[in-house]
């Protein structure tokens, strides 16, 4: 069984999606720890409800961000975490954490990377008037949302969409592809070669894309 550590900053609905898949027996993982950098994150309540250990680590208590990330890495290591999942973690992960878990950190991003990296991706998509957006699960490297892509899912964007309606539509798909990426990792089916993430048993790239039907 794969030991997973989750980092979150907010509502934690992606964290909940992972919890639900584990509870349903569809994800052979144990969530060892939730780390939050925000004491008001609703994710904390979700952890409590499911008896998952939760640590609030206050970045302001550390002289530098690097030292904060060393502390995060130490806590994850202390619980034998094998995969770190960023589930709405609103902080650029420091090099020290990336180096401590090479190829073992995943992030869910609410856009089709490399479009609209960073913050407020859904607003960026609306402002750009794209016709299609979506979400991406990728491995984390030292850049901002630049690591190798694992799974993407697309949603149509209509002229009536607002940041809120688009965010809601994308979030529904995030809840599908994030647990799916963790499942593939837990099954040992993800092989990283440079920028390419090969999914064993998934011979063409098209099979790895989840396309919801248009409304
Ligand atoms: C999600 O949309 C996630 O993709 C995004 O924050 C939201 C968290 O929702 N993450 C980022 O923007 C990271 N740059 P949640 O707390 O309900 O899972």
Record keyword descriptors for this entry.
single chain, 215 residues, alpha/beta, Rossmann fold, 2 domains, 8-stranded mixed β-sheet, two-stranded antiparallel ribbon, 33% helix, globular, binds glycinamide ribonucleotide
List the topology elements.
Layout: E1 2-8, H1 13-23, E2 29-36, H2 43-49, E3 54-56, H3 65-78, E4 83-86, H4 95-100, E5 105-109, H5 121-128, E6 132-139, E7 149-156, H6 163-186, E8 190-193, E9 196-199, E10 209-210
Parallel strand pairs: 1-2, 1-4, 2-3, 4-5, 7-10
Antiparallel strand pairs: 5-6, 6-7, 8-9
The structure holds glycinamide ribonucleotide.
Structural write-up:
The chain is an alpha/beta fold. It folds into two domains: 1-102, Formyl transferase, N-terminal domain (Rossmann fold, 3-Layer(aba) Sandwich); 111-136 and 152-215, 3-Layer(aba) Sandwich (Rossmann fold). Helix content is 33%, strand content 25%. The protein is built from six helices and ten strands. It has helices at residues 13-23, 43-49, 65-78, 95-100, 121-128, 163-186, and strands spanning 2-8, 29-36, 54-56, 83-86, 105-109, 132-139, 149-156, 190-193, 196-199, 209-210. The strands form two sheets. Strands 3-2-1-4-5-6-7-10 form an eight-stranded mixed sheet. The longest helix has 24 residues, at 163-186. The radius of gyration is 17 Å and the shape is globular. The model has no long low-confidence stretch (mean pLDDT 94). Bound molecules: glycinamide ribonucleotide.
């Amino acid at each position: 069984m794969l030991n997973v550590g989750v980092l979150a900053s907010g509502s934690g609905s992606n964290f909940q999606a992972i919890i639900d898949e584990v509870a349903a027996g569809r994800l052979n993982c144990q969530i060892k720890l939730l780390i939050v950098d925000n004491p008001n994150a609703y994710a904390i309540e979700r952890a409590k409800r499911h008896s998952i250990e939760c640590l609030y680590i206050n970045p302001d208590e550390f002289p530098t961000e690097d030292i904060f990330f060393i502390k995060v890495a130490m806590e994850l290591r202390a619980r034998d975490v094998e995969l770190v999942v960023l589930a709405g973690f609103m902080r650029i992960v420091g090099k020290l954490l990336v180096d401590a878990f090479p190829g073992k950190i995943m992030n869910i991003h609410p856009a089709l990377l490399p479009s609209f990296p960073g913050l407020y991706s859904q607003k960026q998509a609306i402002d750009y008037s794209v016709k299609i957006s979506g979400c991406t699960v990728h491995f984390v490297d030292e850049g901002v949302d630049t690591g190798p892509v694992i799974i993407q899912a697309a949603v149509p964007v209509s002229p009536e969409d607002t940041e809120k309606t688009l965010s809601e539509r994308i979030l529904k798909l995030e809840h599908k592809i994030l647990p799916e990426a963790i499942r593939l990792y837990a099954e040992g089916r993800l092989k990283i070669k440079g920028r390419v993430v090969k999914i064993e048993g998934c011979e063409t790239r098209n099979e790895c894309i989840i396309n919801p039907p248009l409304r």
